[in-house]
Amino acid sequence: MISEWMVSHDEYKLSESDYAVRIDLMTQVFGIDAAERYFEGLPSSAKTSEAYTALLHCYARSKLIEKAEDLYERLKGTYLSLDAITYNELMTLYMSVGQLGKVSLIVEDMKRQNVAPDLFTYNLWISSYAAALNMDEVRRILDEMTLDSGCNESWIRYLKLAKIYINSTQLASSNFSSLVESDKSSTQRELISYDFLIILYGGGLGNKDTLDQIWKSLRTTRQKMTGRNYICVLSSYLMMGHLKEVGDIIDQWKQCATSEFNGNLCNKVLVAFKEIGMADKATSFQMVLGEKG
After folding, report:
1. Helix (H, G, I), strand (E, B) or coil at 196
2. 186 falls in which pLDDT band (50, 70, 90)?
3. Intra-chain end-to-end CA distance of the chain, in Å
């Protein structure tokens, strides 16, 4: 098998990241089983936190919950030094399969191990509660972020955009239990998760290319778009100063068959930007709205 060959034909010393890359490539080319054999065939010294995290990522991508959890428990028993990326992989898995309650358990694990959360950690944590419409917890976590020693300009942009989104949409007024228990719960959860990915890349990371891709992906799904989704993405483009894209989103919203353009929601965005001290963004948005009639 190719996995055994790769282990026995190393012509130079590989770095920790090299092993991790190989595990990921093995999964994509030969499948999970081959990646597992490759990992198990590594010497103990090569089974680093990066290698474990790479295999955990492969399990998460394939939504193999039991394998991911078993590997995570095994990893904790090694006493290797971990960072937020490892925990984020498991949180991403739980979000993707709708096991929202387990996300906060991973955060508790991180805190017990004194591992500092990063912006992705907070986004996943917040998304899990937002998807369950537990907005009290969302606000509590946002407050916790402001006190975190890692809080920087990216985090502040994220915090501002998250607050604009929450305050401008009707997310907080939805009924928690009926949403989670209804047949539409998975659809709503996925849409809210998309919204917070948009907030992450549009607000915190300011990555327009990724934001473009996420929005394109969302629009190509069969799920019915809501006014909340449009407000989220246009606020993100507005935060980054891309007014042409803001106008394009308004046009798309007006043409949408499942969500009627809502001027009141747009006005709430205007107010929200002013309230967080970004009157210049509010003025720009008002200008775009005027141009679009």
Report:
1. helix
2. low
3. 64
